[in-house]
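Annual report, structural modelling task.

Input specification for the flavin mononucleotide complex:
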Amino acid sequence: MSRLNPGNVELARTIISRYPRPRSALIPLLHVAQEQEGWVSPEAMAHIAELVDLAPAEVLGTASFYGMFKREPVGRYVVSVCTNISCLLLGGEELLEHCERTLGIKPGATTSDGMFTLEDVECIAACTDAPCLQVNYRYFLRISHDEVDALVDDLRAGRRTDEVPPHGTLTRIRQDIRPERWVGRGAEGLPPEIR
Amino acid sequence: MAVSDRSPIVTTRFERGDAHTLEGYLATGGYAALRKALAMTPDEVIEQVKAANLQGRGGAGFPAGAKWSFLPKDVFPRYFVVNGDESEPGTCKDRPLMERDPHQLIEGLLISCYAVRASQAFIYVRGEMALAQERLAIALNGAYAAGYIGKDILGSGWSLDVVLHWGAGAYIVGEETALIESLEGQRGMPRLKPPYFPAAKGLYMQPTVVNNVETLSYIPWVLQHGGEAYAAIGTEKATGLRLFALSGHVRRPGVYEVEMGTTTFRDLVEAPVYGGGMRHGNKLKAFVPGGASAPWFYPEQLDLPLDSSVVGPAGSMLGSGAVVIMDETTCAVRAAWRLVRFFAHESCGKCTPCREGASWIEKIMRRIEKGTGREEDLDLLLDVGDNISPGPFPRPAVDGEEAVPFPYKQTTICPLGPSTVSPVHSSIFRFRDEYRIHIKEGGCPYG
Ligand SMILES: Cc1cc2nc3c(=O)[nH]c(=O)nc-3n(C[C@H](O)[C@H](O)[C@H](O)COP(=O)(O)O)c2cc1C
Ligand code: SF4
Ligand code: FES
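The model returned the following structure:
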């Protein structure tokens, strides 16, 4: 719904400065926008376009290619259930059906209280811990149907928020480079100094 | 049963819980290999990696040392990109390396960048891996602050920046040229090779090395112990140790660090330290030997060694090190359809045979599985597949028929197209009767 706030503009400028070309920062900046609002609004994309000197259509062109960027508001918790091969073999589809019943929604939908969005997703690289799901990209491995219900209850009641931050928060720890340690020669045509 | 008693290399710190902190890593000998490398010339480092015959672990299995030698001489800037996009179904061995021992990856990356004289490095991590992002951020922050990354690394005069990059959910971005496009802020669509081999025309059309997380994680050990020591593990053609993600119907699914060449698929499935046998003592029906893209193997192939030079001619690939075990309770049509659905969903749309073909195959497979398939659908499936990957399609030797060796042919820009055909062909080839039953009886006999 809005442009990046001043703190995030500063963060965006720091991120941009780490790449030889500004456009490379596009995906990280879209994540910053999603962190602020929980989704990526047209206003945020237009603002990002200004920051990296692109047309808004180019930002949308990239954003729409990547499944993590939500271009409509989603629930506070996005529940992503894997139904790909390794999970399929060990109850992934049943897990998804159970989530549908518990949340009362189909994949792609959001509960009416705005708390949960359900997704049927491809492999999330936890195949040896099937069946599994993510909530806001935090893993829940070899999860039982009862554990799903307990998790949903806890999140609804505002518990376990340290484990699962709100949707959009990709990482709570960012890369931090002190200016005096930064080399900044990635764009230069010179060989690095090696004896 | 030949289970190697060789001690592990890249998983030794997995149980510590603090390896992502600089203190934890240094306490276990961390960064000694980097110091050793910095006392050598870059070419001497490359020689060690060549001697190790360290084969890439991202899928193609190309030796890292040889890949590095393709960089054109004296063209700068040149870039190093870590492929941490791990999304091939069945594969989950790079994530633990990033979460549980990120410094090992960073040290391997630094040594590699020094060897190829890279101007800047990027670690491209799959967007959905929040914990890996956090652990890598902690590790990078620690290493930057303590002088292992950045200006004048360990007082050697050599400097390098390493930037952590976030993906955002797209399987195709794991393909190296698509990864580069994505890192340029574009849609992640593969580039045509030739001419866009990353070594010559990579990131910003400059020389670029793309290596997998696991490949780089082995580099510190190789430098510490020497390339020859690494090459002495395993067999001559299948050197070293490698991580295998063993999933599906075994008693103990898990990620295991296994000696190449001397270990077989049967060892992986049956050895008590690995799979521990089939779940419920059921019978093996088929298995995927190297990630969703690989043609399937059947019980007859269980005794093949984990060696690409054997598995390739036998009709499949070790690919991304993902072995998916399917027992007799598995519906072959459903399993194949789920894999096809994946590829159809992930096709980037750049080539017509893949974009159109994958979605057609998915629709036909779906109607067969749902019970509304037609008799002529099987030929149609094979026909659409043939447009993407002209036959004969790779498959193992079964019932007196000879194997068709890997790799597959392709009419497409990248191998994702033919990967769609793998599960279709593998399941029709061996389980044609199951398709017939689906079609005749109007549904899945497995319920
Ligand atoms: C469709 C497709 C997906 C791929 N996905 C990955 C991946 O997720 N991670 C990876 O390391 N390599 C992946 N690869 C292989 C890369 O293109 C490349 O070969 C690899 O990163 C090189 O690193 P290596 O030489 O260390 O193996 C993929 C290839 C294709 C065709
Ligand atoms: S084969 Fe498929 S995924 Fe690969 S470039 Fe062509 S359309 Fe894209
Ligand atoms: S198949 Fe479900 S996590 Fe990989």
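The mean pLDDT of chain A is 96.
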